[in-house]
Amino acid sequence: MFGTVDTYRKVIALTGPLLPFLSFFARLPVAMSQFGSVLLVAQTSGSLATAGIVGGTLSAGQVVCGPLLGRLADRHGQRPVVLAAAAVNALATGALVAGALGGLDTVPLAAIGAVTGASIPLIGPLARTRSVALAHRAGADESVLGAVHSLEGTLDEVSFVFGPALVGLAVLVAHPAVALAGAAVLVVAFGSAYALHPTAAVTAGSPAPARAAKGRRPRRPRHPRIVHAVRGSLALQGAMFGACQAGIASLTDRLGVPGQAGIVYAAMGVASAAVGLGLGALPARIGLRLRWRVATAAALVLSAPLLFTGSLWSLYAVVTVLGAAYAPHLITAFALTERAVASERLAESMAFAASSLVAGQALALAVCGRLAEEHGPAGAFAVAVGAAALCLALALLSRVPAARTHPAGAAAVTAAPRESYAGR
User: Which distant-in-sequence residues (6+ apart) come within 8 Å of 349 by Cβ?
Assistant: First the structure.
């Protein structure tokens, strides 16, 4: 216990206490935008189909443009990219609210939704990149790097619990438009504060590679196969999220308590966050390959009871326990990405990993909603179990390098002079 606290103290000493606070609130708009946009459009248009289309284009924009924002951050630094993205996203979110309230047609609303998703500053992946750069610059050992990933994963999980909860609260006391307006305020205030924090100096960017004599740029470093395997695993994890959402919504509706769906899903997120934070206590000698295999095996074993769940309390129990397998997989996947990619492509790779998760979730939601209608909750939950089985197969069949594929944070270490952020 004391060793874990001491490890996290080392992480906070690297980042300063303010950076995790800022990055947490800057992540909330990501969790609020899609849910809030669906509720807003559904209420103003009276059409769930229109709401689904707008929510889908918002997700598509994030999936397609997230890695591009990461690449721009690698090239030009996080500060200008996040500041620009936060400004565009706030304007696009405001336009979406105004368009929905004004009765705009589906196609223009969907277009605005796509811009809103495309401009979401992916603070989670960028914060991981910045914290890792700080750790490498300080010469931190693998236990501290593991704690960095655990802390960032926990902040992600908590944001995806509180984000929809804030939307639900705003809808309860006011209107979905208030929730999206709040997301716009958060992205401007905390996204900008995150971008302007002094630690941004360690992610100042790398210049574009010079052209060779024949006018060709040198090839960018290629990713090893493990990076693509991890992206596939994260897409399958997203599919588990989407399938669980659809199955939970279907079962709670069948039981006559549809309002419990969000609370059940939140319970899974709370359990995941708690276990993720505790993952920092694992010693570095328990390698990433073993962690990946154990986490995916646990997800398969713990998701199987979903197929036989028929009451509200059993659903709470199964889903809460299942949440304990999610954070270890996500944290390990991002840690594997950080270990395998070159530092000058880290932000792009982290964003691509996050986009894989979103893509899997969006696709599963679209498919599992229909399955739940035709075959009941078990139809959706079967997809979650199948995705878990494929995750385990990837973990068992993929070759995980025993050491780092690239030098640890070479670009990040030289990006800025050493400085203490403990008081910031």
Answer: 70, 223, 227, 337, 341
Specify the pLDDT at position 414: 42
CATH of domain 1-205: 1.20.1250.20
The pLDDT tens digits of the residues spanning 69-119 come to: 999 999 999 999 999 999 999 999 999 999 999 999 999 999 999 999 999
pTM: 0.84
Please tell me the distance from the alpha carbon of residue 242 to that of residue 264, in angstroms, as a whole number: 14
Per DSSP (E only), the strands in 281-422 are: none
User: 175: number of CA atoms within 13 Å, CB side?
Assistant: 10
**C-beta of residue 284 within 8 angstroms of C-beta of residue 143:** yes
Comparing C-alpha atoms, which of 377, 398, 78 is closest to residue 234? 398
| Domain map (residue ranges) of the chain | 1-205, 223-405
Q: Structurally, what CATH architecture does the domain formed by 223-405 represent?
A: Up-down Bundle (1.20)
> Taking the CB of residue 308, how many other CB atoms lie within 10 A of it?
10
Return the DSSP state at 157: H
